[in-house]
Amino acid sequence: MNRVQLLVRLLAIRRVLIRHGIGELLAGSALSTTARWLLPVGRGGRETTAPRGVRIRQALEDLGPIFVKFGQSVSTRQDLLPPDVGQELCKLQDEVPPFPAEQVLAEVERNFGASAETVFASFDREALAAASIAQVHAARLHSGEDVVVKVLRPRVRQLIEQDLEVMYTLARLAQRWWPEARRLRPVAVVAEYEKTILNELDLLREAGNANQLRRNWQGSPLIYVPKVYFDYCRTGVMVMERIHGIPVDDMTALRAANVNIPKLAANGVEIFFTQVFRDNFFHADMHPGNIFVDATNPEQPRYAAVDFGIVGTLDERDRRYLAENFLAFFERDYYRVARLHVDSGWVPAGTRVDELESAIRTVCEPIFSKPLKEISFGQVLLQLVAVARRFNMEVQPQLILLQKTLVQIEGLGRILYPDLDIWQTGKPVLKAWMIEQTGPTATLRRLRREWPDLRYALEKLPLVARRLVDEALERPQAPAPNPAPEPTAGVGGSSRATAGGALVIAGAVWLGLDTPPLWVGWLLGATGLLTLWFGKPKV
């Protein structure tokens, strides 16, 4: 997008905001002061007679997919929104206006090279649900299975790429002129979001995500992931088993079905922590429109998930630090939380751990021993932001998707069962994972994974040790004042060399297995090298 196109898009955004009177709604807020040119007050159009929640929802719909997804995320936190706004934003989850059936049929034909009537035994022209990026239609395969067909919106990629360029421009301006930008890293945040949303535009990738989640939870009593029909999947179309269930936020229907609500809420927390830490593959778009409840057995309710376009993973280092942070947090070990933040590089290396510990304790201590309904996460979030600013804590873009998902989980928990103790529910899952990561099973798993590299290193180790010995032997030696009789043919030297080589190999194996404490591996290796050095034959 060139500068002229960028300016045209910014002006188009401005016109939408003016038409819906968004500047008038935000008058007096910090946001309206910051973006006064974009949000002029008192110049609304014909839509400004509608209630404010409707105006905000319609403005987001008019602005396009990226803004709709923002509204979907915000809608999960009804506790932070005025009731009228929260109720309207919930409609963005599955009540986005659908695009016409003619365009749907054209997209199906473009992807398959054949009409929908040919590809499917039956195809419902009316959409089951419509979202910002795609919509789904009921269909039946020629083999008799009932399925849903997900079809991307026409021109959705162009619209998203256009708005991503707008976001990059605003992020670069912020990075240049806003003092907080160095810590908040707006360009890196937009780059992380770009990867996420562009991945969502490839329905073949989504099909792979769904199949991976299905394997991870095959046979689980907690959650069901529908089957994907890969023969019918294309970049712009995906076909999946049709499921039936109660929307997770339909409390009237859940109570009418006598669903065990506390168990359902606790299962949701367990699923989240298990996906993140056991599987390192988590559903990262868990707004109510994507989650249903199978109430066939009301005492053992099971979730059913759809829409797998956004999934998250973490590298091993971040996952380990997060688990340790959560556990320390659950145990109120604020010193450990502060220490981990320094060790992980999330705060500058020179940060005083005791000061960070005190600040974290001030924010976190009041929320323990309280049910979800009594915790104001909005206030906690604001206080943590203040702590982050004080200690120059940088935003970690790779964790944003996880943080967003955790916010959605908290929002679902508040809808389902506000008395849920989210901390005590998640703690056993984390402790089990940590034990698994540090126990014998984990050691064997790492050995099996790293064995090709370790074997190569072990094969080369004798050659490296031999070169070290040869280099030592080639160095000139100072004559001893009273030379001792030369020992007979190197039996002792040979045994010392063997012992030294064995110690070096043992140290390499210890370190290769990442077995704590690591200093043992270094000690074995150093002892072996010293044995090789001082045990060399005299010349």
Detailed description of the structure:
The model is unreliable at 29-34 and 486-492 (pLDDT under 50). The protein is of the alpha+beta class. The strands form three sheets. The chain has a four-stranded antiparallel β-sheet with strand order 1-2-3-5. A four-stranded mixed β-sheet has the order 4-9-8-6, covered by helices on one side. It is globular and about 90 Å long. Helix content is 58%, strand content 8%. α4 packs parallel to α6. It has helices at residues 3-19, 22-25, 30-34, 52-63, 65-75, 83-90, 101-112, 116-119, 156-177, 181-184, 186-199, 203-216, 251-256, 261-279, 316-330, 334-343, 353-364, 377-390, 400-416, 422-438, 440-474, 491-512, 518-534; strands at 122-130, 134-140, 146-152, 223-224, 237-241, 246-247, 282-283, 291-294, 302-305, 311-312. It has 23 helices and ten strands. It folds into four domains: 3-90, no CATH class; 157-196; 246-438, no CATH class; 442-475 and 490-534.
Question: What is the arithmetic mean of pLDDT?
Answer: 77
What is the terminal separation in angstroms?
A: 75 Å
State which percent range the strand residues make up.
5-15%
Characterize the largest beta sheet: strand count, sense, and whether it forms a barrel.
4 strands, antiparallel
Query: What would the principal axes of the Cα set say about the shape?
Result: globular
- Count, helices: 23
Radius of gyration: 30 Å
Number of DSSP strand runs: 10
What proportion of the residues is helical, as a percent range? 55-70%
Report strand order across the widest sheet. Answer: 1-2-3-5
Overall tally of structural domains: 4
Which stretches are low in confidence, meaning pLDDT under 50 for 5 or more residues running?
A: 29-34, 486-492
Helix/strand class: alpha+beta
